[in-house]
Design goal:
The complex is a heterodimer.
Chain A: H1 2-33, H2 35-41, E1 46-57, E2 64-67, E3 72-75, E4 77-89, E5 94-95
Antiparallel strand pairs in A: 1-4, 2-3, 4-5
Chain B: H1 2-28, E1 33-35, E2 40-43, E3 48-50, E4 59-65, E5 68-73, E6 79-85, E7 90-96, E8 108-115, E9 119-126, E10 131-138, E11 144-151, E12 158-163, E13 166-170, E14 176-180, E15 185-187, H2 197-200, E16 211-215, E17 221-226, E18 231-236, E19 241-247, E20 261-269, E21 273-281, E22 288-296, E23 301-307, E24 311-316, E25 322-327, E26 333-337
């Protein structure tokens, strides 16, 4: 019985270690696949934000949302329509 | 027998410990209630409508002040406000929009100071520039004077001097807190939870909650309504949470990809009731439904009254219960009578 428990514990440890190794390898593969894109953004600060495809023009200045078209903040309106994500680049402007 | 007794003792000790571990995480977060039913479910129609010149006065908000209207104008008019008589004859157009000296980047009516036969005075916030002003209008000549009283960070959503050097503030990240001249900051209960200041203080950040707020008549309580979700809060003005409710669905059940709605207006009605105008779109975002929701002062539900049309906001006379509603798809002011809920 003791030998069985010991064997099960060792197996569990080996599986956990394998999972960590696999994740590391996988992330490296991911990095390689997107290296070009990452190099392009090197040195550029950006943020991913929620954006909306349509607008409800409320007039209230506290209402604001990101418009998906230019990824710019629109004030005096609430976002409506489809919700997606876009990229806001520090210093202004954005891309979806 | 001895082993069974030992097992029973161990279980008697373990079970309370497990219960404590299960309950402790719940103790650290405030509770909320999801309201799915109201005691009264009905519809309500306007008792009358008021026609006005929508081309000359493209308004997004209206305030009834004695014998006058204070109209909040859309920005393409070049001005923040117009003051008219009850027949919509213009008395004054004020708070020019722009980036020049004395001009406003944005305008919001933030409370009446006084009104007499001669003069109307009210608070204006310029959210985008970060300042609070007093606008004074001579009701006979139409001339106006703007005096800046406070400056604060742009995108300060709420700014209320409470006296004795204390302020109630909510910045761009929409978290309410009390502060004083020494800079001590005490968040309203629940509003400081899970805060990430490094992210939330950034210019680009837009919070999920975008709320407005109003005090009750003796300023002992603050009613907060989220314009982007079914959430409402009532706090004592020392920050203690009285109640937090959600209409229909709680925060865990809200799918932000498909949910479109919010409380587009909220007000106290008399001393004992609360009124909000809640809007929700269907999953396609094509049809809006809206309701007037009536609560007691502790946010216990009283009535849900369905409305016709695409409604965008209201002003309520707290003493008479007369409510003026503006809409996206109608060019008139709809007048509702809520006096039975006073």
């Amino acid at each position: 019985m003791k030998k069985l428990i010991f064997a099960a514990a060792i197996s569990l440890l080996l599986c956990a270690g394998g999972a960590v190794l696999w994740a590391h390898v996988s992330s490296d593969e991911f990095f390689d696949a997107n290296a070009e894109a990452l190099i392009d953004t090197r040195g550029v600060n950006y943020n991913i934000v929620d954006c909306y495809s349509e607008s409800d023009h409320t007039g209230k200045s506290g209402d604001s949302y990101y418009d998906c078209g230019k990824c710019e903040r629109i004030t005096g309106a609430k976002g409506d329509g489809k919700r997606r994500e876009c990229v806001v680049i520090d210093g202004g402007g954005g891309t979806d | 027998m001895v082993e069974e007794a030992q097992t029973e003792v161990m279980m008697n000790r373990l079970i309370p410990l497990m219960l404590l571990i299960w309950l402790l995480p719940g103790c650290s977060n405030h509770s909320f209630e999801v309201i799915k039913k109201f005691p009264v479910e009905n519809s309500i129609g306007p008792v009358k409508t008021i026609e006005y010149d929508v081309v000359n006065y493209p308004i997004w908000e209206i305030a009834e002040i004695g014998d006058f209207y204070l109209l909040s104008l859309f920005s393409d008019t070049g001005f923040g406000f117009a003051v008219t008589d009850k027949s919509f004859n213009q008395i004054s157009r004020l708070c020019r929009l722009g980036n020049g000296p004395g001009e406003f980047l944005s305008t919001e009516f933030r409370g009446l100071i006084s009104v007499s036969e001669d003069t109307l005075k009210f608070y204006v916030h310029d959210l985008l520039k970060g300042r609070r002003c007093i606008a004074a209008v001579c009701l006979k000549s139409g001339k106006s004077k703007i005096t800046e009283t406070d400056s604060f960070a742009p995108w300060t959503r709420a700014y209320y001097p409470l006296g004795n050097g204390k302020y109630l503030i909510s910045n761009n990240n929409n978290r309410y807190y009390l502060t004083d001249n020494s800079g001590n900051k005490t968040y309203f209960e629940g509003w400081g939870d899970d805060i990430n200041e490094a992210v939330e203080n950034q210019e680009w950040y837009i919070p999920d909650i975008q709320s407005t707020e109003t005090f009750n008549s003796d300023s002992s309580r603050l009613l907060i309504n989220d314009r982007n979700s079914p959430a409402l809060w009532v706090h004592s003005t020392d920050g203690t949470l009285v109640k937090n409710v959600y209409i229909g669905k709680g925060p865990e059940d809200l799918d932000r990809d498909t949910y479109r709605g919010g409380h587009l207006g909220a007000s106290y009605l008399g001393d004992d009731s609360i009124v909000t105008m809640y809007v929700e779109s269907d999953d396609m975002g094509e049809t809006d439904s809206s309701w007037l929701l009536i609560f007691d002062k502790d946010l216990n539900p009283k009535a849900r009254l369905s409305l016709q049309g695409e409604n965008k906001g209201f002003t309520l006379n707290r003493k008479t219960g007369i409510l003026l509603m503006l809409g996206y798809d109608y060019e008139e002011i709809r007048v509702y009578d809520l006096s039975e809920w006073l």
